[in-house]
Write a structure and sequence with these properties.
6-stranded antiparallel beta sheet, 22% helix, Peptidase_S8_Asp-AS, Peptidase_S8/S53_dom_sf
Length: 609
């Protein structure tokens, strides 16, 4: 069950009565199995695994929220949402593609995406000889798993479309080439991008050069090979636990991390360097790089031939972050002001304007301080059942509001070591919800931060009444193992109005730089056709796709051409930072722009010395 291409867990993966857990077990397999008691597991490496366990107790009733949380917040997969040819000029691609000594196009480099899928049959993803530039698709969705060849020709049935980690289907290039030679390619390979996000990002990073009269389009690395992981939607029980609205695309951290593992293994199998583009994000976690996905990415940051690129997120203006401004309660003894107690009390307000089915709020403190909360409803009813010095939980249904609040406090969160409080509001009444936080400190007050979910996971125009606009990078953008890309408008050199800002919660400099993210042209998904249709999109995921294409050019120059065999994520990050261009007269680095804006030509100039 632990191999890459075979698993006994297939029966559990799509079962809505089975819970998925993403576990950092650090070689203590027996200990984790004793805690979780799973029905099945899939080993990722010596540090991480995915475990599957029934969502029902012995009586057949669903496991309660407190039981789930008791298994460990760090083990519950987090929910990720989508982070939505002048751009090429803006990143300085011209000289890199045309200078005789470079002439880089991404040849023999893999560009991998973990996203909504790809329109593989589109002409923008075909080589000059008519073959498909998509090397493989791992489609995780149930539909792909069930297809199993029912619409395939006798010739295509001979090609293995094996499950990966026991689920979905892998469609290899041999089958993709066979499909695009027919009039109905999606009957042979029934994998479509119904959202369009993955197709758009793939075209921006790696689409063909396409001429239509005076119009020209090109991806950054038009000769690279593409691999796509089409994510399945998160299970309903995970969505319900985190109160994700119906109909909103939502993806499990466990499926994403397995997608990363698949791409890396595929690159090793093919013997080619790989760029991984992550256009997904979440506000969950400590915002300092300690989600399990982020910790896993940290393990690949130094691997030669691997580069991971992620988007900063689009959370500016949502009012989704609160930072405490602690003031010490001073007393007076003999005319000298001094701390009366080693406590600080601070207050934040969550404003729920319209009807909202529910949301979660995460409060992260800093060790060794201890934290206690009281939550007041709009009519003043108080909840204060949590203890500051030990793990505890509590629940209340506010009488007048009809709102149910579940609260959980963890004194030492497993991955970060910091105090953590989760507040889960079901059917929150409109109005001001007041949260009083008391910090007990040993030497000086450390403060705390709180985050609401990303904008698409949050209904009812819900926001903090006194938000802080910084420290709003969406995971995995806080990971040390990810090149983090903010967004700007390359046409007027202004910052993209929704681009998330850094730094990380404990001050590490991220984002690394900004890339074009406003009305960038890319492919419109919707079928094969004979003429590509283009659309413009904005979002930091677009900037990440442009940067992923740039990384492919550096891997071609460094590894494929033998100029720098040790090139990896960290090396490419530092090269691109050295080439970053300043466009606004402010100090660099800074939380909005990082070290400047992406400029590939300047980066190669820096290499030349």
């Amino acid at each position: 069950m632990d191999s890459l291409y075979d698993s006994a867990c297939g029966a559990y993966i799509y079962d809505e009565d089975v819970l998925d857990f993403l576990v950092k077990y650090d070689n203590n397999l027996a200990g984790e199995m004793q805690i979780l008691q799973p029905d099945c597991r899939t080993i990722i490496n010596s540090q991480f695994l995915v475990a599957y366990r029934s969502a029902l107790d012995t009586s057949g009733a669903p496991l309660s929220t407190d039981i789930l949380f008791g298994l460990g917040y760090d083990r519950i997969p987090k929910c990720f949402g989508l982070m939505d040819t002048s751009a090429l000029h803006g990143i300085g691609i011209g000289a890199v593609q045309t200078v005789p000594g470079l002439s880089l196009s991404g040849k023999d480099v893999l560009v991998g995406f973990i996203d909504t899928g790809i329109d593989f049959a589109n002409p923008l993803f075909r080589r000059a000889d008519g073959t498909c530039r998509v090397t493989a698709i791992w489609d995780q969705t149930q539909a792909a798993y069930e297809a199993g060849g029912q619409n395939m020709s006798m010739q295509s049935e001979e090609i293995d479309t094996r499950p990966i980690f026991g689920y979905g289907r892998e469609y290899p290039q041999e089958l993709l080439n066979l499909a695009i030679q027919t009039e109905q390619p999606y009957q042979i390979v029934p994998s479509r991008d119904t959202d369009g996000h993955g197709t758009f990002l793939a075209s921006v990073a790696a689409g063909n050069t396409y001429l239509d009269g005076d119009d020209i389009f090109s991806g950054v690395a038009p000769e690279s090979d593409i691999i796509m992981v089409k994510l399945k939607q998160a299970k309903q029980r995970l969505r319900d636990f985190f109160l994700i609205p119906d109909g909103v695309p939502c993806y499990s951290e466990a499926d994403i991390i397995l997608g990363v593992k698949y791409l890396i293994n595929k690159a090793m199998e093919l013997g080619k360097p790989l760029v991984i583009c992550l256009g997904l994000g979440t506000n969950q976690g400590d915002h300092n790089g300690n989600l399990n996905l982020e910790l896993y990415l940290d393990t690949v940051v130094t691997l030669p031939g691997i580069c991971v690129v992620g988007s900063a997120g689009n959370e500016l203006g949502t009012g989704g972050h609160f930072a405490s401004l602690s003031t010490i309660n001073l007393g007076n003894q003999n005319g000298i002001s001094q701390p009366r107690t080693r406590t600080v009390r601070n207050e934040m307000e969550i404003y729920v304007e319209d009807e909202n089915p529910g949301f979660c709020t995460e409060i992260w403190g800093r060790a060794p301080s201890l934290y206690q909360i009281a939550v007041y409803s709009p009519t003043g009813q108080r909840f204060d059942q949590l203890f500051p010095n030990r793990d505890s939980s509590g629940m209340i249904t506010y009488l007048y509001e009809g709102t149910t609040l579940y609260a959980e406090s963890v004194v030492v969160e497993n991955n970060s070591g910091d105090p953590f409080i989760l507040l889960r509001f079901e059917k929150p009444a409109p109005g001001i919800w007041r949260i009083e936080v008391t910090e007990n400190y040993s030497s000086f007050p450390a403060g705390y931060d709180a985050w609401l979910p990303i904008r698409q996971f949050l209904g009812g125009n819900t926001r903090f009444s006194r938000p802080d606009p910084e420290v709003i990078l969406c995971a995995p953008a806080n990971a040390r193992g990810t090149i983090t890309v903010a967004g700007y408008n390359h046409l007027d050199n202004s910052l993209y109005v929704e681009s998330s800002r850094g730094y990380t919660r404990k001050g590490r400099i991220q984002p690394d730089f900004a890339a074009p993210a406003v009305r960038v042209a890319g492919l419109l998904a919707g079928g094969s056709g004979t003429r590509p249709l283009f659309v413009r999109r904005s979002g930091t995921s677009v900037g990440a796709a442009l940067t992923a294409g740039a990384a492919a050019l550096f891997l071609e120059w460094g590894i494929v051409r033998g100029n720098y065999y040790g090139m990896n994520t960290e090396v490419i990050r530092q090269i691109l930072i050295r080439g970053a261009r300043t466009v606004v007269d402010i100090a660099y680095p800074n939380p909005a722009w990082g070290w400047g804006v992406l400029d590939i030509s300047r980066a190669f100039e820096a290499l030349r010395g």
